[in-house]
Amino acid sequence: MIKHVGVKKLLRYAVAIVASICLIGAVLKTYQFLQLSADALYNEAYVDYQLPHIDTSSSKSNLGIDNLFRKKDFKAIIRESKKTYLPNDKTFLLIGMSHLHTNDPFKAIAAFKQIKPSGNYSQQAQYYLSLAYLKNNDYDQALGLMQQIKNNKTHIYSRHFSSSYLNKIQMLKWK
Fold first, then answer.
1. Tens of pLDDT, residues 49-87
2. Distance (Å, rounded) from C-alpha 45 to C-alpha 138?
């Protein structure tokens, strides 16, 4: 014989199930929020820069920096950058990348800002500048630049910043 369950009892079970699901969802979101960090988001978006080819028209000092970058000798690039010569956009990009690799986002930002906005390396500079801002905990600057990159469909890095990713950075601002 089947017992008939009362409507009140059934409603109570339904409310308990819904409340349990909401509680689990809230706990998961809280956990995700607490685990969120600038370093984790930086690592999620970071794409290692590769020099496209050896540019034989570059000056001797630029070729030296190119070779050091290929060898991933970032500290040597930073030492070279202190010598007296006028770097071009490509050299500023490599200097900025070297500062990022040596965990000095403040100096990376300064180097990336030296690159001409309409030059050959402007899109790379803009992308890595946004990551340098993120690594430097300057979330407003990072978010604004990342949104600009995302919205520019011709930007070579436009697909690297999803709406979900930008929402995570927005959440970092709340911490």
1. 888 765 544 555 456 788 899 999 999 999 888 875 667
2. 16
The beta-carbon contacts of 3-10 under 8 Å, at least 24 apart in sequence, are none
- Confidence band of 29 (pLDDT split at 50, 70, 90): confident
H-state helical runs in the chain: 7-35, 38-45, 60-70, 74-81, 89-101, 105-113, 122-135, 139-151, 163-172
Q: Rounded CA gap, 53 and 69, in Å? A: 12
Which pair of structure tokens corresponds to residue 140?
A: 């407003």
| Distant-in-sequence, close-in-space partners of 150: CB < 8 Å, separation ≥ 6 | 158, 161, 162, 163, 166
